[in-house]
Amino acid sequence: MNRDSLTKFLLFLIxxxxxxxxxxxxxxxxxxxxxxYVYLVLLFRRNYPRWAILLWSFAMxxxxxxxxxxxxxxxxxxxxxxxxxxxxxxxxxxxxxxxDMEPSMKMLGVAKFSYYTLLSVTLYCLVFFTLESFNFFNWxxxxxxxxxxxxxxxxxxxxxxxxxxx
Length: 166
Description:
The protein has 166 residues and is an all-alpha fold. It has helices at 3-21, 39-42, 50-68, 73-92, 105-108, 110-133, 139-164.
């Protein structure tokens, strides 16, 4: 097992435990839930094998589903995010950047990393909460959940990335 796989696995375990034991019990104002496990998908480097991104994403989503009693919601949403992550990353990096560049505030800059995070988390929350509600009869609550969770998760990811960069 190489070092990259080991660090991904440790990050996987840490994010899973934090999400299941702490963050799943936080619902600010009844709407905003931090979904920090999305951070795993955001950190895949450029030109990482797409099958591996999909596998890691699905595994993380499935584990969150098992411990959170959300049958298939996180797995489907994470798999979709893993599918589009390379394309979202390509929007924010220069074409002459190294092939093994890992997205971070240090490499992308604060603004580009923040936009990358916001776009990815917004896509994830849109899919997750749409699958969860599966109707639009109560769309103000759906919108509040999407916006609240997106903002809270984005702020947490940026704070953790800022601390990680030091």
